[in-house]
Amino acid sequence: MAEGKVDPVHQFTIEPLFGTDHWNIAGYNVAFTNSALWMAITAVVLMVFVAGGARRAVVPGRWQMAVEGFTGFVDNLLKSNIGESGRKYLPYIFSLFMFILFSNLLGLLPLALVGLHPFTATSHFTVTGVLAVMSFAIVLIVGFAKHGLHFFSLFVPHGTPVPMIPIIFPIELISFLVRPFSLGLRLFVAMMAGHVLLEVLSGFVISGTNAGVGIFFLAGVPSFLLMIGICALELLVAGIQAYVFALLTCVYLNDAENLH
Amino acid sequence: MDAESAKLLGAGLAAIGAGLASLGVGNVFAKFLEGALRNPGAADGQQGRLFIGFAAAELLGLLSFVVAMILIFVA
C-alpha cells in the first residue's frame, strides 16, 4: 500500500505562483509564492471585514457588532494587562490578533472541495518568527526609550538578596531572550501539528476505504468521525493561539511600560 | 541498530513529552475550574493568567513535537 500513502508534510510546500520563480532582487529570489498569496488574501479579507463594520451607526447591525466585539475585546485585553497607558498599542495588538486569527481560520477552509489548496501562512516559522521579533523589538524600543538603562533592572526582581543577584541575573536574562523564540515557535508548531494530524487521519480514511469493507468499517469510519472532532478542535486552537500570541505580547509590553 | 531506526525510535520516544504536557494542560484547567467554582466572582478576572499558564504548559509539549519533527526530517 506504499504507493497510496498520503504525505502529511506536502501541504506545507512553498511554491512560486504565476511563473514568478525567476524574479530576483540583488541575487535573492523574490518569487510570489502561495504563502505570500494567502497572506495577501488574509489582509484583504481583514480589511473588508473591518471596513464593512466601521459604520458608526447608533444602533449597530450584526456586522458592526462583530467588529466592535473584536476591538472591544482587544481594548479590554490591553486595559487589564497594561492599564490606561496601554491604549496606544491598540492598533498594533488588534492588527496582530486579527491577522493571526484570520490566517489560521482561512487555512482551515475546506476549499480543496472546489480544487483550491488552502495554505496556512502561520504554519511556517519564518512568518511567525517575524511576527514574534516585531513584538520583541517593540518591547525593547519602548523599554529603552522610556526607562533608559534602568530597563536592565527588569532582570533583578524587587527584593532579591545581594548574594543571589549573580545567579538571578543570567536566569532572568535567558528567560527574557528566549521570549521571541517561544512566542513564534508556539504558534507555528500548534498550527503545523494540527494540519499534520488532519492529514494523517485523512490518510487513514483513504487507505481504509481502499482496503475493503471490513477495514473500512473498522478503521475508515472511526477515523472520519475523529477527523470531524479534530476539525472542531482546530477551530478552537486557531482562536486560542491568536489570543495567546496577543496576550503574551501584552504581558511583555507591560514589562517594558511599567517595569515592575 | 542503524542510524535510521534509532532516529525513528527517538521520534517515537518524543511523543512521551506530548503525553506529559497533556497532564500539565489538564492540571492548569482543572485547578482553574476548582478555584472558579469556589469563587465565581473572581474567575473572569483571572482568565488572562489561565491562558498564560496554559501557554507555558503547552509550549513544553510542542517542543517535544519539534524534537520528533527534527529527528524525522532534519537530522
Automatic annotation (TrEMBL), chain B:
The record marks E58 as: Reversibly protonated during proton transport. Residues 9-71 form the V-ATPase proteolipid subunit C-like domain. Pfam families: ATP-synt_C. The chain crosses the membrane at residues 50-74. Keywords: ATP synthesis, Cell membrane, CF(0), Hydrogen ion transport, Ion transport, Lipid-binding, Membrane, Transmembrane, Transmembrane helix, Transport. The keyword Methyltransferase does not apply. It is found in: Cell membrane; Membrane. InterPro entries: ATP_synth_F0_csu, ATP_synth_F0_csu_sf, ATPase_proteolipid_c-like_dom, F/V-ATP_Csub_sf. One of its GO terms (cellular component) is proton-transporting ATP synthase complex. One of its GO terms (molecular function) is lipid binding. It comes from the Bacteria. It is a multi-pass membrane protein. Belongs to the ATPase C chain family. F(1)F(0) ATP synthase produces ATP from ADP in the presence of a proton or sodium gradient. F-type ATPases consist of two structural domains, F(1) containing the extramembraneous catalytic core and F(0) containing the membrane proton channel, linked together by a central stalk and a peripheral stalk. During catalysis, ATP synthesis in the catalytic domain of F(1) is coupled via a rotary mechanism of the central stalk subunits to proton translocation. Key component of the F(0) channel; it plays a direct role in translocation across the membrane. A homomeric c-ring of between 10-14 subunits forms the central stalk rotor element with the F(1) delta and epsilon subunits. This is ATP synthase subunit c. The lineage of its organism: Bacteria, Pseudomonadati, Pseudomonadota, Alphaproteobacteria, Sphingomonadales. The gene is atpE.
